[in-house]
Fold this protein.
Amino acid sequence: MDDEVRISEEQFRHVYATAFKTWAQLYSHAIEDGKLPASCFFTQDSFPLQPTFPRNLALRHHWDQIVASGFSVWGSSPAENCPHGIPSFRRLEQLDVAVHDPVLLSISASAPSNCYSNAWFNPHSDYMSILILAWAYILSARWAEIMPTPCTLLYTDSQASYNDATTKQKNCQPSLVVDIGPANPEEARWWAAVLAQGQGWRATIQTSFLSPWSVRVESSTEFLLSLERNTLPSDRSASTFTEACGFLNRFCTRHNVIDQSHAALSAVLFFPYMAGQTLQVPSPSFNKQGQLRKGPIGHHGSFSDLHSIHEGQHLDRLLALSCNTGGIRSLLLSVFYEPSIECNAVTPWLQGSLAAIESLADSDPALLGRMCMDRTPEVACILLGSTILGLQKELLQEVHYGHIPFDLPSAVWSGSIQSFMLEVTVLWSRV
């Protein structure tokens, strides 16, 4: 008799082959068109259902963490044979909104440099690590404004130096000059904090907790600031979220790296997920003067500035998304879910998928990232960040073990499908 649970050997081979072919087609498309798809870049339409932190947010301690909590209400869509649906239920949601330890960002020329392709950005002007540091401050500054408990955002004594004769005589460490243009004193002080070794700024809540995007820098290369004006940095208080956004926007426009800035933001959204761990990124690569390039903005001229991110509640949605670390993990692993595959055929589907990846793209993280973006374009802007930070090996290891979780809220808020349950369940309301 045929086994009603286990699939036959013929079915096993068919599902395995289907999975292999699916990923082989993704590989072929990525090879033919190496540029990033437009879905990788944040717009006002990215995660439109993602809620923001309300202004009356109540925080509480939970297992030595500070969490924001609320409830989501769920129910099934009415069906022809079940007009009343499944009774609704409430689910407690908790997001960590502070951390004990910052991410340690190691910036080194020896760090893996194949996590993003030369076809994605200008290969002669790599500002990625600089932009990641800038976005870490910006998200933390916004966090300090919207958290209900009084927060502090302060500069520390650690600062990047200026590129002058005195600095050159004292400097024994390899250095890289970063051109910040005709910056005013406040702007110069902000960049000095952002590009400092160690921690040039601190965003704290209840004294001992840090912003989830806090970062400690260990760089084999010292950043030196080059100014067009002969001015000293201001001693004023730390720049606000709005001011920092303006500083970054001017820098990106000056150096024609707005596309890289979108990618850097995607990477920084993973900082809460990686809190206390070490991330490696390659040292910046551009000419010594930090040359001002002419021409269209990167490969995506339609993204002429960053105002679409700063305006409205878009960045606030990304803050809440980033704090949902379990949801972030589920979004990444949703790449491997296929609605047409029955639950008893998951094994050959995953085996065929992994076999294709290992034989075609295992040695090329950027290529694998591009394949995943095409596979699930609704979360491509998140996959871009995981690719830049080189997180694929960790994710593939979880797939090998069959550890593919799903998170109901993140799936609905992102419009992604992570489980068969999400095809019959809808989010009714949030409290």
